[in-house]
């Protein structure tokens, strides 16, 4: 800008110096062609004026450009400051998110079942409970005495009869099997609702599991999803069973993994031992061309063996035995000549190491259950520990504690609602899991018989909370608070908690149906209980036993 002003001043001075009047004063004469000179001076003046305007315009443009550059620089600076602030907030948000995630994982591992004994912790009432008329203590007590107890009086006699017959059948099975080639069958064990005394709906079905082992010199090597190897989410809760020789190293000899030279010999394994024909593995009920036990092959073998055993002892009994369900290979039915029948399940299982956890070949299916990954994947059942836990806790509870009563009433209501609106994703096992969580969370005095109404409400509230969050954790897996008296394997206590409601996340249609059924059950609960309480005579329980639930 100063340069431009200097150039303007220089032009003005030059014009003044070169003006003709100066020469007039010096020469003392006026030129003859005055008009021509004046015309030239005007042209010169005009050109100078235009030059001045051009220079002023140039100076203005330079000033505008300078201002634009200064404004752009300030915008860039502000953008940098905003970006720095944004990056700072982004980083801070990420840190907060990571801290929350770490806290959630710690809470899940350490306190995932910590439901708490406070009423506030259980107060998760949603819209489903608004306007629900809950039966009072007197109505619940009357309903339980007349409807539940009246229909479960014959369970003990039925269990005794089924167990005696199953023992006789398995003894005959051992006699028809080849001890050198067939699987070795052990004594059966009763599990499930019939042996935990909370089954309420007919037909009553006894669930018996039968452990078996391979013939010598073979043994089972069990591997679970929590044994260290990575299992996909849909295989959590499952495991595999490898059939090996008893003298075989668990990790496998190097001769199986490396090509030995012609002049080298493994001192641990001979050539005969290292090469196993596929027919031998199939005889050991393994999947084709593998060493892994096949659940389908096991059930086929077991059905054939049971049929042979029954043919041997059938002359001693005055009833018929048959397989009742095609989709449940271990389902058997005793048919008497009078037309009555008794159903029970006899399912082969494999013991996990030296514990009471078992790999079960076939598990009762539900609409929520996902398909089994393959026939070499076996589901793990903790039914023996569940029965033992309920038995141990019952010793610490008041006389006539209401924990079993709550489960029976809830199971009855859910079963009645499903008979009206169709099956849902909830099963009796989910209801039992809710009871197990509350048994561990609440003090023993809270389960006194007069608190039946409050504990039933707690179970419904807890179940609603689990449905809302789509999270119901397995009671034993990942539960570090299990008493050492139970003898539960530590490997499952340290495992990640297993969400029984995980399929709800994947199957929205089943989830919607389950939630609708649960809400409908809440609305119909009072009417169902009052109906059965009113219409069942007070002193006529024999008629109740004959009525089907």
Automatic annotation (TrEMBL):
Keywords: Cell membrane, Coiled coil, Glycoprotein, Membrane, Nucleus, Signal, Transmembrane, Transmembrane helix. One of its GO terms (cellular component) is nuclear outer membrane. Residues 404-478 form the Mab-21-like HhH/H2TH-like domain. It is a single-pass type I membrane protein. Pfam families: Mab-21_C. GO terms for molecular function: protein kinase inhibitor activity. Residues 38-82 form a coiled coil. Residues 1-20 form the signal peptide. It is found in: Cell membrane; Nucleus outer membrane. The keyword Metal-binding does not apply. Belongs to the ITPRIP family. Enhances Ca(2+)-mediated inhibition of inositol 1,4,5-triphosphate receptor (ITPR) Ca(2+) release. PANTHER family: CELL FATE DETERMINING PROTEIN MAB21-RELATED, INOSITOL 1,4,5-TRISPHOSPHATE RECEPTOR-INTERACTING PROTEIN. This is Inositol 1,4,5-trisphosphate receptor-interacting protein. It comes from Neopipo cinnamomea.
């Amino acid at each position: 800008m100063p340069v431009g002003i200097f150039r303007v001043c220089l032009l003005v001075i030059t014009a003044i110096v070169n003006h003709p009047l100066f020469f007039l004063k010096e020469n003392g004469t006026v030129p003859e062609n005055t008009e021509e000179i004046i015309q030239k001076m005007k042209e010169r003046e005009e050109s100078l004026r235009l030059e001045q305007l051009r220079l002023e315009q140039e100076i203005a443009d330079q000033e505008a450009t300078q201002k634009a550059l200064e404004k752009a620089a300030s915008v860039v600076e502000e953008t940098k400051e905003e970006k720095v602030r944004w990056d700072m907030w982004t980083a801070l948000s990420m840190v907060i998110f990571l801290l929350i995630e770490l806290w959630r994982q710690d809470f899940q591992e350490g306190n995932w079942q910590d439901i708490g004994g406070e009423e506030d912790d259980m107060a998760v009432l949603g819209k489903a409970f608004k306007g629900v008329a809950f039966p009072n203590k007197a109505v619940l007590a009357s309903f339980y005495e007349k409807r539940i107890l009246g229909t479960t009086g014959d369970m003990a006699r039925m269990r005794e009869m089924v167990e005696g017959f199953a023992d006789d059948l398995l003894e005959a099975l051992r006699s028809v099997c080849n001890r050198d080639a067939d699987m070795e069958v052990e004594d059966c064990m009763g599990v499930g609702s019939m042996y935990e005394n909370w089954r309420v709906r007919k037909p009553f079905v006894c669930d018996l599991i039968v452990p078996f082992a391979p013939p010598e010199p073979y043994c089972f090597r069990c591997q679970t999803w929590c044994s260290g190897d990575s299992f996909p989410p849909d295989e959590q809760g499952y495991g595999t069973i490898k059939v090996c020789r008893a003298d075989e190293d668990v990790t496998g000899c190097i001769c199986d993994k490396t090509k030995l030279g012609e002049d080298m010999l493994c001192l641990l394994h001979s050539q005969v031992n290292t090469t196993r024909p596929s027919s031998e593995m199939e005889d050991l009920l393994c999947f084709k061309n593998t060493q892994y036990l096949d659940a389908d092959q096991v059930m086929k073998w077991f059905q054939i063996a049971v049929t042979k055993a029954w043919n041997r002892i059938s002359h001693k009994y005055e009833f018929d035995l048959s397989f009742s369900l095609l989709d449940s290979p271990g389902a058997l039915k005793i048919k008497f000549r009078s037309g009555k029948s008794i159903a029970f399940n006899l399912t082969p299982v494999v013991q996990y190491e030296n514990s009471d956890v078992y790999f079960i070949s076939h598990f009762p299916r539900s609409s929520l259950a996902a398909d089994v990954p393959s026939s070499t994947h076996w589901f793990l059942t903790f039914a023996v520990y569940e029965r033992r836990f309920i038995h141990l806790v019952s010793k610490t509870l008041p006389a006539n504690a209401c924990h079993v009563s709550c489960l029976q009433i809830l199971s009855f209501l859910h079963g009645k609602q499903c008979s009206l609106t169709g099956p849902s994703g909830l099963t009796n096992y989910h209801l039992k899991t809710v009871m197990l969580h509350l048994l561990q969370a609440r003090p023993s005095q809270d389960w006194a018989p007069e608190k039946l109404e409050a504990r039933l409400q707690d179970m419904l509230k807890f179940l609603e909370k689990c449905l809302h969050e789509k999270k119901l954790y397995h009671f034993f897996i990942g539960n570090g608070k299990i008493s050492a008296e139970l003898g539960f394997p530590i490997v499952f206590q340290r495992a990640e908690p297993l969400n029984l409601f995980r399929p709800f996340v994947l199957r929205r249609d089943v989830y919607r149906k389950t939630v609708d059924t649960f809400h409908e059950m809440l609305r119909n609960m009072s009417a169902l209980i009052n109906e059965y309480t009113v219409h069942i005579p007070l002193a006529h329980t024999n008629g109740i036993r004959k009525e089907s639930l």
